[in-house]
Design brief:
Blueprint: E1 3-4, H1 13-28, H2 34-68, E2 76-78, E3 81-83, H3 88-92, E4 102-108, H4 114-118, H5 120-135, H6 144-152, E5 163-171, E6 174-184, E7 187-195, H7 204-222, E8 228-230, E9 247-248, E10 251-253, E11 260-262, H8 263-272, E12 297-300, E13 303-306, H9 307-318, H10 324-337, H11 339-344, E14 346-349
Parallel strand pairs: 7-8, 12-14
Antiparallel strand pairs: 1-9, 2-3, 4-5, 5-6, 6-7, 10-11, 12-13
Helix pairs in contact: 1-2
């Protein structure tokens, strides 16, 4: 799971003192040519440079191991030795003796769920405040009907822990943020977050993302297949979304090869152009690329059938084959969803 990164420290003071010591030795020598003194300085500086570089490489290897464990990767002083930093769970622990009471409540995004209904008006109020203040929407645009359509009605059916949920973040019993998530067999997908603008100073976008990462880690301990956290779309030019790229390790999906690439190598490409191929290997192609229209499955007159069957039945019904425009539309659909989904999902044809 992703964790935050920390900058590498500068070379330790012992190395700096060692360099100064060698320099003073050269200055105090009354015999020997200046060229020898210069050579000694160069040798000393070269040695210290290699030592400093080796030390940084060791620290970087240690940091990567920490990140792989889900730890902070931060170097902490412990008798001059490197010690493990706090885990994500350690950072997220709530102190029960705090002045304010903080709680997290997860409810099914189901309009028939009683808890969801009981908290609907409060959640809607926070959503409206957020949309007006952050996105400049009018209250008529973010009304109850739009809220239900956008974040409450979901095609996912509830199945045990899987389905669509709202995570309520409460401060002193009051909802200050809501994270809308989908829990799927292999991941938790972050759908949307809205919060009370009065609490923007708490950096709730970053905090709730970290909290959801901790949630994924807890689920993974019970369900090993559930191991990924998706933050949704990343728009490099949108300041509101920049925080998504601050988590590490993180990956972006290449829009051409559909392979996952480290975000560190994607950023320079997006700085140079709004669209970029992230995968450096130009020979890598999308294994799920749509190829033939016959692979599309269709729902026609309440019956499931292949595109070929649909074309034949359509010709028998009105004596005409599907038009070129319809074929182009279905081909575009197949290219968007990919070969596997096109063969599993039914495309409605009247």
């Amino acid at each position: 799971s992703p964790s935050t990164t920390t900058p590498l420290p500068t070379p330790c003071s012992a190395a700096k003192k060692d360099i100064q010591h060698h320099g003073n030795m050269d200055l105090d020598m009354e015999t020997g040519s200046s060229s020898k003194s210069s050579e000694a300085e160069n040798l000393s500086n070269g040695r210290e440079h290699r030592q400093g570089k080796a030390k940084q490489m060791r620290r970087e290897r240690w940091r990567q191991k920490q990140l792989a464990k889900g730890l902070s990767g931060e170097l902490e002083k412990n008798g001059g030795k490197m010690s493990e930093g706090k885990s994500l769970e350690d950072w997220l622990k709530y102190k029960p003796d705090s002045l304010h009471k903080f709680q997290i409540r997860i409810v099914s995004a189901d309009l028939e769920n009683q808890t969801f209904l009981d908290t609907f008006e409060e959640s809607l109020s926070v959503y409206q405040k957020y949309q007006v203040a952050v996105h400049g929407d009018s209250l008529t645009k973010c009304n109850a009907a739009q809220y239900k359509r956008f974040l409450c009605k979901n095609p996912l059916s509830q199945d045990g822990i899987y389905g669509a949920f709202h995570r309520h973040y409460l401060l002193n019993g009051k909802i200050i943020a809501v994270g809308v998530i989908d829990i799927l067999p292999n991941c938790v997908s972050s759908v949307y977050l809205y919060y009370d603008p009065d609490y923007a100073f708490l950096s709730l976008g970053t905090y709730t993302s970290l909290n959801e990462m901790g949630f994924v880690r807890s689920l993974h301990r019970r369900f090993s297949a559930l191991q990924y956290y998706y933050l949704g779309f990343y728009i490099h030019s949108c300041p509101k979304m920049r925080y998504k790229g601050e988590f590490s390790p993180s990956e972006l999906c290449c829009p051409e090869s559909y392979t996952w690439q480290p975000i560190q190598q994607c950023r320079p490409l997006l700085d140079a152009a709004p669209y970029a191929r992230f995968c450096p290997n130009l020979e890598t192609v999308d294994e799920n690329a749509f190829k033939l229209i016959k692979d599309v499955m269709v729902l026609h007159h309440c019956k499931m059938m292949s595109w070929s069957e649909y074309a034949m039945i359509s010709g028998q019904e009105d004596q005409t084959q599907p038009s070129d425009t319809e074929k182009e539309e279905v081909t575009q659909y197949g290219e968007l969803v990919g070969r596997i989904v096109a063969a599993r999902m039914l495309l409605y044809r009247p």
